[in-house]
Specification:
Length: 213
């Protein structure tokens, strides 16, 4: 699995293109904005984007999804249906985050815990990790030893829970039960900032001290 990371918007959100090295098929995960920039990357690298995948409904992660859907004629898949609140609130989010006005749109398909998404021969397992938002999911690729976590876990940090419907205890439980149960060598691709690993965060993340083992 090849991963191309393109930070977008003033929030420097990590939009990710994942590509199957066998079939050449790609997906874009969390296209949070700057659609022209993302379309230029697709053209420059001749990416065959088959789907748009979303971890949660915050505007800085979904802001370009509907535009790319129309341009590429692909489906928006995910997140969990409990994110409907945030999609309905997209106009409010645009005001709250200082983005340009944004109309409401919805994914084509919601995802549930235990679902899988295929991108060529890449098999993404869906893990339900609420807390930052009520319907947040992450995508785990076992063979690539990689998990794409949105805003659940960061290098040295965890997701904010001070937005509506955030829940700190639930977030920590998600990290402990779903993420910290993955192999320690698993690469963590977060929605903002640097990559990290499950083992590193288990040992050093100050927000999760004593939350495992």
């Amino acid at each position: 699995m090849q991963v191309l990371t393109i930070p977008v918007t003033p929030f420097m959100q990590n939009a990710r293109f994942i590509t199957c090295e066998v079939t050449g098929k790609s997906a874009v995960i969390d296209p949070g904005g700057d659609p022209d920039k993302l379309l230029s990357v697709i053209a420059e690298h001749s990416l065959k984007v088959d789907a748009i995948l979303l971890t949660h409904g915050h505007l800085d992660h979904v802001g370009a999804a509907d535009i790319l859907r129309d341009k590429l004629n692909v489906k928006i898949i995910g997140p969990h249906k409990d994110e409907l609140f945030w999609f309905d609130a997209l106009p409010m989010q645009a005001q709250m985050f200082g983005f340009a006005p944004k109309e409401t749109f919805l994914p084509d398909n919601w995802l549930e815990s235990g679902d899988t998404v295929q991108v060529g021969e890449i098999r993404l397992e869906v893990l339900f990790c609420p807390g930052h938002t009520p319907g947040h999911i992450v995508f785990y690729e076992q063979s690539a030893k990689t998990v794409i976590v949105g805003d659940v876990l960061f290098k040295g940090g965890i997701g904010r829970t001070d937005f509506p419907k955030g829940n700190s205890a639930q977030l920590k439980e998600s990290i402990k039960d779903k993420l910290f149960s993955l192999p320690e060598e698993t690469l963590v691709l977060s929605g903002h900032g640097e990559n990290t690993s499950i083992g590193h965060e288990k040992r050093t993340n100050p927000f999760m001290s004593g939350q495992y083992g």
